Amino acid sequence: MSILDFRDDESLGKIIAVDTATVVVRVDDLERLKQIQVNRLAVIRSAKAGHHQIGVVARITRRAGDEIEPTEPDELLSGKLPENNLVRIVLIGTLLDKAGLKSNVFKRTLETVPEIDADCFPLEGDRLTSFMQVISQVSGEGPQLDLGRYTLDENARALLNGNRLFQRHAVVVGSTGSGKSYTTARLLDQISELPQANAIVFDVHGEYQTLVGDEFRHLRIAGPADIGANRGLADGILHLPYWLLGYEALTTLFVDRSEQNAPNQTMLMSRCIIEGKRAMLDPETHADILSNFTIDSPVPFDIDTVRNELDRLNSEMVPGANHKEKQGPYFDKLNRLAARFDAKRNDRRLGFIFQPPPDCMKMVWLEQMTHLLIGSRGAQADKKGGIKIINFSEVPSDMLPLMVSLIARLVFTVSQWTPLEKRHPIALFCDEAHLYVPERASSDSADAVSVGIFERIAKEGRKYGVGLVVISQRPSEVNRTVLSQCNNVIAMRLTNGEDQSVIRRLLPDSLAGFGDLLPVLDIGEALVVGDATLLPTRVVVSEPKYKPSSATVDFWDRWGATESTSDTTNAVRSWRRQSNQ
After folding, report:
1. Percent of the chain, pLDDT > 90?
2. With left for phi above 0 and alpha for psi between -120 and 50, is residue 206 left, alpha or beta?
3. Which one is predicted more confidently, 350 or 426?
4. What are the CA-CA distances from residue 274 to residues 266, 306, 497, 538 (Å)?
């Protein structure tokens, strides 16, 4: 028996206009019109037996006078309606009484088109409860991720399809204090329960350090206090040595593109680095590497060798006429490059790049590091840490884009070179993505290098098992190309008009009206739309098992406390030491 059997006298009204995914219903009973609510569900009786179209109420208008009568169908369907007891409904799917051996199956397709004069019914009460149970059951048949509860019915679980969420990328957005970090922690909760979980969280502010347990592995980019301490992966300290950087990143780091001599500097840096890498490879042991060698090959090299070669070229004298020497082609033209080179190398804030421990300069270190980052929980020697949380809080802000994108590039490249049958999928959670995947980036900046890497992952990551979850409080400042590839949207409350516009553009045309909900969502409530959700609607996100340390400070309560919690002495000490550890 169908859960949506209605009597004729329960009809809300009849359809008077039909578009591809939109219908307009005329309501003659004013009392029934008053009971309808925007963003609630409605059912349209199909001419095909056993089929019911499900829609969302997008607009309601009431008669102002008998003399007002719409005449153009385009006006009805576009939403430009005169006040005339009309309800505009956006169709979102079909409920089938029977589908094979199953009964009451919901599909996000419109298998039949509603007919003129078809009856429309409000979906409420027990019928709504039954329908929401169907939604939960159908969603649960696939790989399920329990995000929370539907606002329409708090007893119905909001289940997402885990495959589609990460295959087709996702975006989690929300203003400060809207519950964005809680939602991210809830997603991580669900992933952590899987035996072969595999994800990396780019934790820019250290707010996910409170997520503890065998499911999580915490790593921290080495800070100034770690330089010379010979602490490495076993201690949770991650160095990113200079030799891992690609050609574009290296030249961006050392060469000022605005200089007239920049092309020569770039060419010389490239040549010196290639020679330095070749010198580290044994012709017999590494013959296979040398035969296909490029500047981007991840091979350790001695940076002092590169610096010495630049000095030699900067002071080189070459044979001239009449057996006299003359200045070489680069004589005294590399002073600025050398000065930048030394400044970067001697900056203790960049010690994790230029002053790595000896183990990081061995060929085997890269294998160990990539296994730790990319290997699933079951692949790790200790069977722990499927979710790797990398703390970037001690990385200088101007270096953040290069360092985050370096790890993203490493993950993507290794996945590319892994045979299909051995490829284990991994998700990258990009917290505060607007800081390193910005919408506006100059062509020769570190931001541009980072944007290029994330754009490629957004476009091609699905093929290689690399999923993106873009997290930001300012979606208008995140690269549009990356956002456009995110086919799943989890949007918390957004108060900024520009941010709202960006999210509206990500929504399907038929659901554009959902964007009006963005500024009125409650804390912890999200608008969920995309390939991973069966029912695009509002969801109350469940509380995560481990809460991130991103809770807003209660000003009034702290000011009214009997004792002070301030500790400026240790704060200044940490500032001077450049470490909170």
Report:
1. 36
2. left
3. 426
4. 12, 9, 49, 55
**Strands annotated E in 46-85:** 51-61
User: What pLDDT was estimated at residue 578?
Assistant: 64
DSSP H helices, 141-228, are 162-167, 180-192
Alpha helices by DSSP H, listed for 359-479, are 363-374, 400-416, 446-464
Q: Which residues pair with 318 in a beta bridge?
A: 326
Which DSSP helix (H) or strand (E) runs through 469?
A: strand 466-472
User: How far is it, in rounded angstroms, from Cα 44 to Cα 89?
Assistant: 10
Q: Which residues on adjacent β-strands are paired with residue 217? A: 388
393 in Cβ contact with 204 (< 8 Å):
yes
Q: Identify which of 39, 47, 24 has the alpha carbon closest to the alpha carbon of residue 535.
A: 39
Nearest to 210 by CA among 544, 511, 463, 581: 544
Residue 155's pLDDT band, with cuts at 50, 70 and 90, is confident
Supply φ then ψ for residue 378, to 5 degrees. -70, -20
Task: Say how far apart CA 427 and CA 254 lie, in whole Å.
Answer: 31
The structure's pTM equals: 0.86
Under DSSP, is residue 26 helix (H, G, I), strand (E, B) or coil?
strand
CA distances to 186, 442, 523 from 540, in Å: 12, 40, 9
Could you tell me if 175 and 496 are in contact, meaning their C-beta atoms sit under 8 angstroms apart?
Answer: yes
Measured CA to CA, the distance from residue 498 to residue 355 in angstroms comes to 42
Do the Cβ atoms of 428 and 388 come closer than 8 Å? no
The DSSP code for 216 is: E
**Structure-token pair, residue 339:** 């000065």
What distances in angstroms separate CA 241 from CA 79, 227, 355, 458, one per listed residue?
58, 12, 8, 26
In the numeric block, the tokens 């006299």 are attached to 324
> What is the SS3 assignment for 25?
strand
Here the tokens at position 163 are: 């495959």
User: Under the phi-then-psi rule, with left for phi > 0, alpha for psi from -120 to 50, and beta for the rest, what region is 504?
Assistant: alpha
Q: Tokens 């003359």 identify what position?
A: 326
Give me the mean pLDDT over the 139-147 stretch.
69
- Residue among 453, 479, 469 at smallest CA distance from 532: 469
Kindly give the pairing relationship between strand 488-491 and strand 170-173: parallel
Residue with tokens 């056993």, as numbered in its chain? 50
CA distance 387 to 385: 5
Cα separations (Å) of 55 from 120, 162, 369? 10, 25, 50
Count of positions (residues) in the chain: 581
Helix (H, G, I), strand (E, B) or coil at 356: coil
Task: Please give the residue that has the higher pLDDT: either 279 or 389.
Answer: 389
Region 505-528 average pLDDT: 86
CB 42 within 8 A of CB 121: yes
- Main-chain dihedrals φ then ψ at residue 76, nearest 5 degrees: -65, -45
Cα 414 to Cα 470: distance, rounded to the nearest angstrom: 21
| 3-state SS, one letter per residue, for 542-568 | CCCCCCCCCCCCCHHHHHCCCCCCCCH
Token output for 579: 């470490």
Answer whether 299's CB lies under 8 Å from 363's CB. Answer: yes
Structure confidence by residue, pLDDT tens digits, 105-139: 888 888 778 889 999 998 888 888 888 888 876 54
